[in-house]
Write a structure and sequence with these properties.
- 2 copies of one chain form a homodimer.
- By secondary structure, chain A is an alpha/beta fold.
- The radius of gyration of chain A is 26 Å and the shape is globular.
- The two termini of chain A are 41 Å apart.
- At the A-B interface, helix 3, helix 10, helix 11 and strand 17 of A face helix 3, helix 10, helix 11 and strand 17 of B.
């Protein structure tokens, strides 16, 4: 039986496990990408693990998120990231060079490779015949240190594309159709692999559009074949020699099968406030708009801007409509400028912004209260635009441009094509703002440039064998990571400063916690007790790292939310369960618990006994750590663990 | 004896007084400009005075400052300003249309006219043979209501320009030379009038550069003749018929005379952190730079960007240097795009931002901590860039561009001209984003669009004749408007919301003041007692309006800072002095003061008596209100005063 592209790519990189849906597998990572919002912590982690040089084939640090420089913090972060890229052997993509995903596709992506990125739209590069997966920062740090990436083998959903898109219907409508069919959880636990004759008319960048928003379906990633179109694309990027063919075998099968007849699609739009809230544009036609927004990694191609330019050329946007143009990369911006498209967009009323993520991540361009914003971006979660009570629709560039002219949501098929957009025959190719790694010898001498807001990750200690520490906080069920450590503009600017950000820990729940926790550090730390679903919500790693920094040694709860559990393990906090959930009642803040022979206990069984000092009672607790996770805990977290592995490897070499 | 241009222009608009330096004069205002940061309060003032329609020839509301839309507040302000412009008969310049000063020059400015603007660089349009003065928001509101502008007649400083600028030395170096000679207070109380044969080689936009930074010398304004160059400029803007000649008579004289031989100038640079800190570029050559920034109202012309493009074309900025390009107007951006200059700037590494003030006012583009930033902007006050510990140098586009290539401050004369920059023969002319006023009949029906953060200015009451109110706060000497009402990112977003912003009043000095003040409102208000130099510092009007809103009725101090005194008067707070400063000692918070027959007392003499309830003592106080100022106080502030004047006029018409 023939293999599909996903199977071929995973097989090629498989280190542990079998390619059976649901089984844990480990794959070798060839490339990584980090962006600036997640990258500063990743670089601090590399520093903390004493990494000498990255072990991937290529890793790139992009700066595309925090481009608004309101004060010193963002530019200081950029300088830090640049110095860390030089030190550890990464490429560095300067602010203004563009959004990671299209730049990576243009300059770095390579068929047959794996890419792990600390950005949820990393999957976009699946358009290049790659396995490209978004992950947490520490996972990406581990990949740079040469560790494989662990995941449960997803089901492969084969999406056969047939037919050809009608005029004014484009790639964005294809992925919106999938979201219409399956909604935002329809891709969970799946890899979406596209195949079929309909691919022939989809350019590499069209495929990027579709692969990118696989994230909105919750898919692990999206995969396209590396076919002649990709060969052509790489050739246009002067990288023709990096192409290799990755196509499904004849007779390849998929766990799930699905077909989209492109010729039957019409312009679609996701209404507020979910990417899955998709209807035909005709259903909301006439709604007045405040903003029309072209750009982002969900419509990053030259074509996406050029088709908007074709529509608005020698016309004017409706009075009062803000037409925001967010170029996705410097290369594309140069092509648009040279071909006159940028001029057409400006003349029609466009506001041109620097190349980057910008409003897609709420970094500027927020709409006015309650006004409709049409965006070619991938997400319209409530408030993501920056405006709390926003009203954001997601659509194609065609729909956004035609609606900008009308001042209201309008079916783009009502405006006929004056000329068909073609790609530049010789597109700009330049790596001016994509700095290559330094030679190894020079890299050794680079010092990390840390502005006043950039801290260190402290060395975490191994789990001691005996300790007696107090419960400092007891919380109830469903504590979210937002309650543990809030996000938002007040807290996030300190993402690179653990000492500072930890001051916000449990601020809302118990403002005295931070002081008590700090006081516990010298005498062995402390315990937090909680109920069910502890650590639900956002995956942010700081919610584990900040309390650890403040001396958190053990958490005892009824059960954990999955990602926070892994984050606690990664940072060396021992996560225990009550054997009997009713024991929750007998623990109180201030109680001292005595842990004896704990390293052996953990290794010997999943049950451990600790004694409650006040009563002398023994408390029965459990853990469900895998052997690898236990290693992390005993080592004092993943950074220590990988550090000692690297020492062993290097010592042995 | 012949007249200079200043005298001719003022004579033409004189309503009261004589053109003798130091005398109070009142002049008729033909045009106004407001920008968004100051404009929202101005529009609320127009609303509060029930203005039906502006009485100026033309008034323009620009949106150029708060272009970063992080949340709903800025875009809501834009919509409010647009609706107010429509309601009251102003032009509205959309966000992205550019900086007020160059746009005004291109599309609105007219030789022989007066312009009052709520922006300190309004003086830039003095380049057009106009009297163009920056003023407080309420002054501009009054001008729109048809009131004249009052000021002390400045001395006229005649600056004779002779010779011709050498290569790589440009208009920016001329104004830097004046700052080098006279520093930042050298123009106080003066109008700088330029004349002489050196003008022949300075284009209209070159003159804009020089006129603009008259503000940095503290000058009332700068004046250039409306000569053939201005005729030519207006012709290029398709407004040739709006030209009229305004040149000095032969034999015209000036109060002060000065000469600059342009041929002797060299590239100059203002070191951190004052525009007056000027030295030759050669003196700081070699200092490494982080940023090179082209744009702002201080170098807004096509030429300023094109000369930078000529320098960097087919070259690359040094690695790690951020070359930020801030187009000043949509027209110029279109010309730069069409002529290939924008492409050259991007290809060399430029980050292109939307047309507007941007980093010049700390709205993005802040430099990294302690790194040198070279800017063509007008100001480098400490922290203005957004970075507290900044290091900003001011220079010409030539110096900024050449230094960007080198990565260090570099004399631009080291890079030879490859071709001479010429202006486009047919520059873009369009008013697409400059919306004209509505016809009067339609304007009546426009409702002001107020987002949730936009309040009202409450109706202020006339000063009662009898009242007995408590002292709620007693402060010492040198209280600044920052102590009365802080600026900064925490407070300023509420600039359009008096109720909300008033919550910050005297926050640092006495956190209980706001609650006590609110409680006083229903029983006639309250008094603040202070020492010398009360209200020093920033001119912000909110520092008077916010406490007034909270019930402040009377201030009694030893003496006042000039601008805050006028602001108190404008908003109907009675500003009194101690006849005997030692009486300061006998007043305490909580004391009740009884004011009897106060309206007559104020009109009859500058001395008034009030009685101190606790002791029964009589307190001798004074005022120094002019007849006009007294009218304002009796009316309950300038808004009431102008409102009743408008009613009288309209009733009488």
């Amino acid at each position: 039986m023939g293999q599909n592209v996903t199977q071929k790519l995973l097989q090629e990189h498989l280190i542990h496990g079998e390619l059976t849906a649901g089984e844990e597998i480990a794959i070798q990572i060839d490339q990584t990408l980090t962006q600036d919002a997640t990258g500063t912590m990743v670089m601090l982690e590399l520093e903390a693990m004493d990494l000498d040089q990255i072990k991937t084939e290529v890793s790139v640090q992009y700066v595309d998120h925090n481009l608004i420089q309101d004060d010193h913090k963002n530019p200081d972060d950029h300088l830090f990231l640049r110095s860390a890229a030089k030190r550890f052997g990464l490429h560095y993509s300067q602010p203004g060079n563009g959004v990671s995903h299209p730049v990576h596709m243009q300059r770095i992506a390579k068929p047959g490779k794996t890419l792990l990125g600390s950005d949820s739209h990393t999957c976009a590069n699946g358009c290049m015949g790659m396995i490209a997966i978004g992950a947490g920062g520490i996972d990406v740090a581990m990949a740079m240190a040469g560790e494989p990436f662990y995941m449960k083998m997803p089901e492969v959903m084969g999406i056969e594309l047939i037919g050809e898109l009608p005029p004014r219907v484009s790639a964005k409508d294809v992925i919106l159709e999938l979201l219409r069919r399956h909604d935002v959880k329809g891709g969970v636990g799946k890899i979406l692999e596209y195949h079929g004759p309909g691919l022939n008319k989809l350019t590499a960048m069209d495929r990027h559009v579709i692969a990118n928003m696989g994230a909105e379906l919750g898919a692990t990633t999206s995969v396209f074949p590396a076919d002649d179109e990709i060969k052509h694309f790489l050739h246009s990027q002067h990288r023709g020699e990096e192409w290799s063919e990755w196509v499904a075998d004849i007779g390849a099968s998929y766990d799930i099968e699905e077909t989209i007849d492109l010729s039957t699609l019409e312009p679609l739009i996701a209404k507020p406030s979910s990417p899955g809230n998709v209807v035909p544009v005709t259903e909301v036609e006439g709604e007045p708009i405040y903003q029309s927004y072209i750009g982002s990694s969900a419509n990053p191609g030259y074509r996406d801007f050029a088709v908007a330019a074709e529509i608005v050329r020698e016309r004017q946007v409706a009075a009062g409509v803000s037409l925001d143009i967010n170029p996705s990369s410097r290369q594309i911006l140069q092509d648009l400028t040279r071909e006159g498209k940028l001029g057409d967009l400006i003349a029609a009323g466009g506001r041109i912004h620097q190349a980057g993520c910008n409003g897609c991540i709420g970094m500027g361009q927020a709409p006015a209260t309650g006004r409709n914003s049409l965006r070619t971006t991938p997400r319209n979660f409530p408030g993501r635009s920056g405006t709390k009570e926003d009203s954001v629709f997601l659509c194609s560039p065609e729909t956004a441009a035609v609606s900008a002219l009308a001042g209201a949501i309008t079916d783009p098929r009502t405006v006929q094509e004056r000329e068909h957009v073609t790609l530049p025959t010789a597109p700009t190719v330049e790596d001016q703002a994509l700095e290559p790694p330094l030679p190894y010898a020079e890299a050794q001498d680079v010092k990390l440039e840390k502005g006043p807001n950039i801290g260190n990750i402290p060395t975490l200690k191994e789990l001691p064998d005996e300790f007696e520490i107090p419960i400092l906080l007891k919380v109830g069920d469903n504590i979210s990571t937002d309650e543990i450590l809030a996000g938002g503009a007040r807290v996030l600017p300190y993402r690179s400063n653990l000492e500072k950000i930890s001051e916000f820990t449990y601020e809302i729940v118990d403002p005295g916690y931070v002081e008590r926790a700090k006081a516990s550090k010298d005498s062995g730390g402390h315990i937090i007790v909680g109920g069910y679903n502890y650590g639900q919500g956002s995956s942010r790693e700081h919610a584990a790292l900040a309390p650890k920094y403040l001396g958190l040694q053990v958490v005892i709860v009824k059960d954990y939310a999955r990602i926070h559990l892994q984050n606690l393990i990664n940072f060396g906090v021992l996560p225990l369960f009550f054997s009997n959930p009713d024991d929750y009642e007998q623990l109180q803040p201030g109680d001292m618990l005595q842990f004896t022979n704990i390293r052996n206990q953990l290794s010997a069984s999943n049950k451990i006994e600790v004694s409650l000092e006040s009563s002398g009672n023994t408390l029965l607790l459990e853990h469900n750590l895998s052997a690898r996770q236990l290693d992390l805990i005993l080592a004092g977290g993943i950074i220590n663990w990988v550090k000692s592995r690297m020492e062993t490897t290097e010592g042995g070499a």
